[in-house]
Amino acid sequence: MTATRHIHLARRPKGVPVLDDFALVAADCPDAGEGEIQVAALIMSVDPYMRPRLDADQPLDVPLLGGGIGRVVQSRNPKFKEGDLVRHGAGFQELFVSSGRGVQVLNRDPALPLSVYMHALGGTGITAYGGLLETGALKDGEQVFVSTAAGAVGSVVAQIAKIKGCYVVGSTGAEDKAAWLRDEVGLDAVINYKAQPLAEALAAATPKGIDVYFENVGGGHLDAALPRMNVRGRIPVCGMISTYNGGGDGVRNLFSLIYGRIRMEGFVASDFGHLNAAFVDDMTGWLKSGQVKYQETVLEGFDRAPEGLIGLFSGANSGKMLIHIAD
Amino acid sequence: MTATRHIHLARRPKGVPVLDDFALVAADCPDAGEGEIQVAALIMSVDPYMRPRLDADQPLDVPLLGGGIGRVVQSRNPKFKEGDLVRHGAGFQELFVSSGRGVQVLNRDPALPLSVYMHALGGTGITAYGGLLETGALKDGEQVFVSTAAGAVGSVVAQIAKIKGCYVVGSTGAEDKAAWLRDEVGLDAVINYKAQPLAEALAAATPKGIDVYFENVGGGHLDAALPRMNVRGRIPVCGMISTYNGGGDGVRNLFSLIYGRIRMEGFVASDFGHLNAAFVDDMTGWLKSGQVKYQETVLEGFDRAPEGLIGLFSGANSGKMLIHIAD
Known about the structure:
2 copies of one chain form a homodimer.
Chain A: E1 2-9, E2 22-29, E3 37-45, H1 50-54, E4 68-75, E5 85-88, E6 95-98, E7 104-105, H2 123-135, E8 143-146, H3 152-163, E9 167-172, H4 175-185, E10 189-192, H5 198-205, E11 210-214, H6 220-225, E12 229-237, H7 256-260, E13 263-266, H8 276-289, E14 296-300, H9 305-311, E15 320-324
Parallel strand pairs in A: 8-9, 8-11, 9-10, 11-12, 12-13, 14-15
Antiparallel strand pairs in A: 1-2, 3-4, 3-6, 3-15, 4-5, 5-7
């Protein structure tokens, strides 16, 4: 038995979550029993998709649902050995015991930092890859608009589209992120939607219209994109972060779907298991060659997970928001 | 040269069109020249899709764009003979001359009234057929919700879905239309959205969710349907009549698209030319057997076309709104 800590949802947030919606709770972790492993958390991920769950699916007073990378510290399960790096979905626990279900050994490429397996080579990466190439059915050279293009998903979407020879416009809400997208990533146009009227800026930035709008935001972003969509355009719907905390305007331009024969379609990362081998090959190569760049915002310390999650909704992150616990 | 009449758009409507937005204009129609035909209008169609055009695509002071059925009264074109019934897209003219482009001879089944070629066997019919079966990818036995189910498109959609063994819920805005859908058409549930709170009524009427929502309305209808959609559900988007005159609420529940992997997709009748032969065979059979029933609201007299078009937005029509000019 070892002392450890959990993060619980203490009460359901009203609107944007606040720190008091969460609780840091002391707990005991048993040793691994027969067939079990004990895992120490190294890195945890906070993601926008976690917000809607706080209203319903996430039980109160149990570890917050979520995924991370850990190291096996005890193994009585033949599939794992002590020291293995693993991906897990065990939620926000510093130390935990598992039967091994839902835990996968991580085959890390030693040339890449471990943290990329939490974004470009992790859930946000395959979300971007599958959402753009499969749901969005991107064709080489098309006109692409990516919302929250400096975010963990958006930045990978934008760079895959560039690799595919597309004209790529990205939106972001801060000047430093806009500069990164323009100067480091090399997008064709970048819109700071907090500094410019989005609809006008998007119209000016998309003289050939939009074939694929990768939707992370909803609301005003969708209303700005819809009238710019080309015939038979596609809107893969990955997220609608502007709507997660309530409020915001409803969407008024859906009429554009009709004459444009636009397809809007939702998806989640787990839809793309069949793409995983191709994704890992492609993305490992793109990261090593520098064709896919990334930013990370890393908060140090297990107890800062609520702060990290809350920060997503004010754009406190540049790129992937991570919680670092141990090496 | 023969005296005739046209209906023009005199000015762009603000919100719901009013009679003064249109003008009845005297004109002269020349005789058919070499290679031409002269056609007398018999029936004309007014349709919701015409409203958005009044804001932009429809020029002022020329015949209102639209389609109808006419009879060839002069022919100097070998593809047509005098007396032929034809479909045309020549717009709102009592008598007109055409090169024959965009004019097709109508092969009428003598057992059916001519007017059905303006709806169930016309543009609204193939819109319903293609939108439901191809864009909506309907499978036998699915759960279906149809908005404006007593309308020209909706009533055909609802009945095709019944023929395909589906559970079908329809919405309409008047009690007489609801009674027709319940008692004559035999839908599984009918919601009068002006008499009941739509979202609650739809939830109660769809205990197994919705696999296909056939969208004619937008706004509150879409917001009510989205949370009821089953995983991998489809929303073929035919129209959004609630939005055509401005106003109305924006759509707030699009987030449901994501986890449901819902597909929304727009279409127009002309997408389904490849289905036309199958459509005519199927629909002719369904009409003759009584499996597809219909209602018509027929206004007598060429000059009443503006009244008919305006009436669509208050639900003045039961089923297809037609303007009858001559037999």
